[in-house]
Amino acid sequence: MRSIFVVYFFVVVMMAMSFTASAQGSLGDPIYTEDFGSGPSPGPALGAKTNMTYTTGCPNDGYYSIVSSIDNTNNCHLDTWQNLVHDHTGNPNGYMMWINATINPPGTPPNVFFTYTVPTGALCPETTYQFSVYICNLIKQSISAGTINPRITFVISTPDGKQLEQYTTPDILPNDPSQSPWQLYATPAFALPAGVTNVVVTMTNDANGGNGNDLVLDDITFRAYGPAISAGFNSVNVTTPVQACTGDPVSFTLVSSIPANSYTAPAFQWQQNINNGIWTDIPGATSANLPQNFTPTIGTYQYRIGVAEAANITSEKCRVYSPPLQVIVSPKILAPPIITAPTQVCEGQPFTLSATATGGVTYVWTKPDKSTSTDNPLIIPAASPADGGTYTVVAYNENNCPSPPSNPVQVAVNPTPVITATADLTICEGTNTNLHATGGVSYSWSPGKTLSDSTMSNPVATPADNITYKVTVTDKNGCTDTTSVNINVLKAPIANAGPDKVIFEGQSVKLTATAQYADVFSWTPTTGLSDPNILNPIANPTDDITYTLHATSTQNCGTSTDEVFVKVYKKITIPNSFSPNGDGINDLWNIDALITYPQSIMTVFNRYGQQVYRDIGYSKPWNGKYNGEQVPTGTYYYVLDLKNNTPLMTGWVVVVR
Question: Residue 284, Cβ neighbours under 10 Å: how many?
Answer without folding.
Answer: 9
